[in-house]
Amino acid sequence: MKIGILAGSFNPVHIGHLLIANHFAECGLYDKIWFLITPQNPLKNKNDLMSKELRLKLLKKSIQNCNKFEICTIEWDMPSPFYTVNTLLKLRMDYPQNSFELIIGSDNFAFFHSWKDHRTILENFKIFIYPRSDYGVVYFTHPNIFFCKNVPKIGISSTFVRESLANGKDISLYIPKLIHKNVINNKFVAIG
């Protein structure tokens, strides 16, 4: 199978994540989209994270009716720090029957040069970059980089959702309806 990897902390999952995943699931590129939920992004503050168990619960509930979506927790059994290059190589080793491609936003791509062994990722995996609001894309040529222009631009981030919640704002349109009460009831969501 051809798998699109949408990696993140999902802290919490929001409709932007689901819209992007749905776009790639429906465009015919992939058999499945795997939400790769990381315990800790090495470039982010651990204190800003909900527990990985809660993030997993919210993600499971959010995608329960989508047969093209699956959750991957492979990093949970890997040593920290969790680097994308190690995860992609492990996925390739553990699931040799599948091919994996990375789906990232232009916000992440802006810092791609700082990722551990980013050249190894470039040489071994296709990367599809979707536009994010407020992040321009630096175009360069590489046979494994694909800039997706017809993907909806999403201006929602998990940080925005957490900050809105902390400020008492209505977040009901930013997160899946299935998890709204769960997110509201977890007031310990950190701001980051």
What does this protein look like?
With 192 residues, the protein is α/β, with parallel strands linked by helices. It has one domain (2-155): Rossmann fold (3-Layer(aba) Sandwich), CATH 3.40.50.620. 32% of the residues lie in helices and 16% in strands. The protein has seven helices and six strands; from the N terminus they run E-H-E-H-E-H-E-H-H-E-E-H-H. The protein has helices at 15-26, 52-63, 84-94, 106-109, 118-124, 158-166, 180-185; strands at 2-8, 32-37, 69-72, 99-105, 127-130, 145-147. The protein has a six-stranded parallel β-sheet with strand order 3-2-1-4-5-6, with helices on both faces. The longest helix has 12 residues, at 15-26. The chain starts with a strand and ends in a 7-residue tail after the last helix.
Structural class: alpha/beta
| Largest beta-sheet characterization | 6 strands, parallel
| Poorly predicted runs | 188-192
| Beta-strand residue percentage | 15-25%
- Termini separation comes to 36 Å
Key words describing this protein structure:
6-stranded parallel sheet; disordered C terminus; 192 residues; Rossmann fold; alpha/beta; 7 helices
